[in-house]
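Worked problem 6 (solution included).
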Amino acid sequence: MSETTIITLVLLAGAVILGIAVARRARLEKPEGYDAFKKSSSSKSDVSVEALLTLVRGGQKITAIKRYREQTGLGLKESKDAIDELEASGNLPLLNKAVSAASAGTMPEIEQLIRQGNQIEAIKRYRDLTGAGLKEAKDAVDALAKTLS
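Solution. The predicted structure is:
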């Protein structure tokens, strides 16, 4: 082998090793705002807008979406839309919608649809009221149906 080929291989090996080291370090480090978010989120309805905004502004949008999903129980699309709205306007409309629907207690309209046997309509209406994803809405309606039986 020529001297140029050997130098190229050594440089390539060094770059690979450096890349692996940087990737490992990045995985071990917590993203900026992570600790603040964890401390401020003690319940599903207690999402810290400031901590999420810190994550988004720190280039950790995916982490913000993940944390928002964990705290609210919303689906991926709904969480992404909420974080996009947070990034654009500084507020979380889906969270406000979900919390207000949940705090209203029982949902008579949904209960009525369940009693009439309109499970699919009940799921659709639940999604409209809360902004929840399909799976979350189905699970909630199923749970409500069990309590009504």
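Discussion: Residues 104-148 form one domain.
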